Automatic annotation (TrEMBL):
<dbReference type="InterPro" id="IPR000648">
    <property type="entry name" value="Oxysterol-bd"/>
</dbReference>
<comment type="similarity">
    <text>Belongs to the OSBP family.</text>
</comment>
<dbReference type="InterPro" id="IPR018494">
    <property type="entry name" value="Oxysterol-bd_CS"/>
</dbReference>
<dbReference type="Pfam" id="PF01237">
    <property type="entry name" value="Oxysterol_BP"/>
</dbReference>
<feature type="region of interest" description="Disordered">
    <location>
        <begin position="316"/>
        <end position="340"/>
    </location>
</feature>
<dbReference type="InterPro" id="IPR037239">
    <property type="entry name" value="OSBP_sf"/>
</dbReference>
<protein>
    <recommendedName>
        <fullName>Oxysterol binding protein</fullName>
    </recommendedName>
</protein>
Length: 388
């Protein structure tokens, strides 16, 4: 454990709530997603906004299809993937001083965004929908039509507390589809999701470390495996990774190592630079809240977010309770009228055929052979919002 005293970074007026939260954590068994967090570690952002972190380096996303051969395209996929990690897992630390618990989305919540065409890279569009509330599952679709690159996926979290840290197992997967610019055959890449540990809970300054491994499996047979370690491993620095690209026969083609929040190198710590993620990120462009429909994240949570940002936690709590009560009533109304909720942008399938084919190439006994998925409905590309 860190040498800090317990609760060292907790605001004085929040100490009692924090102590109660830690006590509840220690007594909790099973999934923590339904727990109510104390206000000082609440984020003003809903989980439906998180898929935007996949593309805060839109140039890397667009450039994948420009790779001259299978190996170069896989390397570009890996570079883009590593470039998404600091945005996905450390952004809240940078902006708010520590990791914050995002707002739990309501069923049917929507988020739309765009990264405009800059320097001819093409426009990149994002569509997100909360497709399940129990368990919470977020589905997303990202496409740059001009570049011939699109990503479809879904994610959920299963969380547990182990004494000093929260362990998060991410469920779901993503499928990246690439049409090579040189006219080659379309390629698909299965991306499995890394596990997380949220450290620093006991002194009130949560931060994330990625743990274990995840993989990127290409339809060409190439596999990228990424291993994550915290401080004291590999380089002795936090947020460290090592990655290897290998053939279908398991022969290593190239390797990469460094920090996913900073610089990484090809072939070893003294090799050529592979990626430097310390440059500016390009946040997604979103319509002003006044132009959004009622189901869109920032419109839905506008008063909760305002309360959190201004420190008016009482107001934030009341607004949050109102939204949650309204959702409970919707579920009751649906049950009494024997109606089921309908997704707007995605269709649920019990077994994802792309996942099935690509996971079989992984040679990983821990990856299940089948997994469900939420398939994007292309006819809804220009649909915004849903009727109330």
């Amino acid at each position: 454990m860190d040498e800090k005293a317990e609760g060292a970074d907790v605001p004085q007026e929040q100490k009692a709530g924090w102590a109660s939260f830690i006590k509840s954590l220690a007594q909790m068994t099973g999934d923590l997603s339904s727990m109510t967090a104390p206000p000082f570690i609440l984020s003003p952002t809903s989980l439906t906004e998180f898929p935007a972190y996949w593309c805060e380096h839109p140039a890397h996303f667009a450039q994948i299809s420009e790779g001259k051969d299978e190996k170069e395209r896989m390397e570009r996929v890996l570079r883009w993937f590593i470039s998404t990690l600091s945005a996905q897992y450390t952004t809240r630390n940078e902006k708010m001083g520590s990791e914050k618990k995002p707002l739990n989305p309501v069923l049917g919540e929507l988020f739309y965004g765009v990264w405009p065409d800059v320097d001819g890279r093409g426009e990149t569009r994002l569509i997100v929908e909360q497709v399940s509330h129990h368990p919470p599952i977020t589905a997303y679709y990202i496409e740059n039509k001009k570049a011939g690159v699109r990503l479809q996926g879904h994610s959920g979290q299963k969380t547990s507390f182990t004494g000093t840290a929260i362990n998060v197992k991410q469920s779901g997967h993503a499928i990246l589809t690439v049409q090579p610019r040189n006219g080659g055959k379309e390629e698909k890449y299965l991306i499995t999701l890394p596990k997380l540990r949220i450290e620093g809970i006991v002194w009130g300054s949560p931060y994330i470390e990625l743990t274990d491994t995840n993989a990127i499996q290409s339809s060409t047979g190439l596999t990228a495996q990424i291993d994550y370690k915290g401080k004291g491993y590999f380089t002795g620095k936090s947020h460290s990774f090592k990655a290897t690209i290998a053939t279908s026969a398991g022969k290593s083609v190239s390797s990469y190592e460094g920090q996913w929040v900073g610089k990484s190198h090809i072939g070893g710590s003294k090799g050529p630079i592979f990626l430097d993620t310390t440059g500016p990120k390009e946040e997604v462009s979103v319509r002003d809240v006044t132009e959004q429909t009622d189901w869109e994240s920032r419109k839905l949570w506008v008063n909760v977010a305002k309360g959190i940002r201004t420190g008016n936690y009482d107001a934030a709590g009341k607004e949050k309770t109102n939204i949650e009560n309204e959702q409970r009533q919707r579920r009751k109304d649906e049950a009494s009228s024997s109606r089921s909720w309908e997704h707007l942008h995605f269709t649920h399938v019990e077994s994802d055929s792309d996942y099935q084919v690509l996971s079989a190439l992984l040679h990983d006994k821990l990856t299940p052979p089948h997994e469900d998925a939420y398939v994007f409905k292309p006819e809804t590309m220009n649909v915004v919002g849903r009727p109330n």
